């Protein structure tokens, strides 16, 4: 099984600036769902950022993917990447 990653985004700007790039960010998400990298995603509550659950063969792969996020490219969010090795999971 590939390692899993929790990608936690923290907005670095106001929601007006985030919302202006939201469509581009969603395209980024959709592309990575299609590639089989992203498993789940959504906004934090309250809306101070977001969370993405991903699977990949290496941290370097995830870091490269994150660099392509319009939120990252435009300085709108800061990513925290946590890698873990799943030992148990639901069927």
What's the quick description here?
With 91 residues, this protein is of the alpha+beta class.
Report on the structure:
By secondary structure, the chain is α+β, with helices and mostly antiparallel strands. It has one domain: 2-Layer Sandwich (Alpha-Beta Plaits). 35% of the residues lie in helices and 34% in strands. The protein is built from four helices and four strands; from the N terminus they run E-H-H-E-E-H-H-E. A four-stranded antiparallel β-sheet has the order 2-3-1-4. A hairpin with a 5-residue loop joins strand 2 and strand 3.
Annotate the secondary structure layout.
Elements: E1 3-11, H1 15-20, H2 22-34, E2 38-43, E3 49-56, H3 59-67, H4 70-73, E4 77-84
Antiparallel strand pairs: 1-3, 1-4, 2-3
Percentage of β-strand residues = 25-35%
By DSSP (H or I, 4+ residues per run), the number of helices equals: 4
Tally of extended strands? 4
Mean pLDDT: 96
Radius of gyration: 13 Å
Biggest sheet, in brief? Answer: 4 strands, antiparallel
CATH architecture: 2-Layer Sandwich
Summing up helix and strand content along with how strands pair, one would put the structural category as alpha+beta
Give keywords:
4-stranded antiparallel beta sheet, 91 residues, globular, alpha+beta, 4 helices, Alpha-Beta Plaits
């Amino acid at each position: 099984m590939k390692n899993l990653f929790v990608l936690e985004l923290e907005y670095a700007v106001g929601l007006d600036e985030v919302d202006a790039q939201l469509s581009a960010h969603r395209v980024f998400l959709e592309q990575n769902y299609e590639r089989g990298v992203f498993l789940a995603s959504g906004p934090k509550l309250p809306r101070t950022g977001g969370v993405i659950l991903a699977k990949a063969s290496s941290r370097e792969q995830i870091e490269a993917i994150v660099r392509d996020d319009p939120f990252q490219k435009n300085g709108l969010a800061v990513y925290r990447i946590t890698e873990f090795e799943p030992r148990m999971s639901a069927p």
